[in-house]
Amino acid sequence: MIYKIPSHQPGYARVIFELPSCVWADRIYVAGTFNAWEETKVPMLQDRDGVWRANVELPAGQTYEFRYVIDGRWQTDYHADGFTENEHGSHNSIVDLSFVMTVPMGGRFSSHVPDGRVAVSPHLPAPTDGATVPARPRAFVPAEMPRLRPRVAAA
Asked: How far apart are CA 116 and CA 12, in angstroms?
């Protein structure tokens, strides 16, 4: 599984590579065009939930080829954005960052209301100008149900 989110750095995206906890391995790495195919440069770490994860900050707007190196064996992720043949007769996985939004941090977490408009929540009644608010219709109450007594342990 691959997750792509905007990075703190402008023009970059954070790519989170994940492999499920059922993958039994001692060491897993991610190698690709983003690290000149160095086998041990991006290690994946196993979290408490057992899932293997690696985070990489990459320039947005490009596509990258990659493969996993699981205990020295090269593996392709066929659940990635795509895959292509390589010169060794197997496939490389592709992660495509050409459509990832790169929004600066100030724009993402600002409390500024755009265009000076305040959105009104749809579940709240419309505000009134000093007029009395009409009473709500009474909710339907089902017929009185018999009270049940709690069980008491025998002495």
From this structure: 30
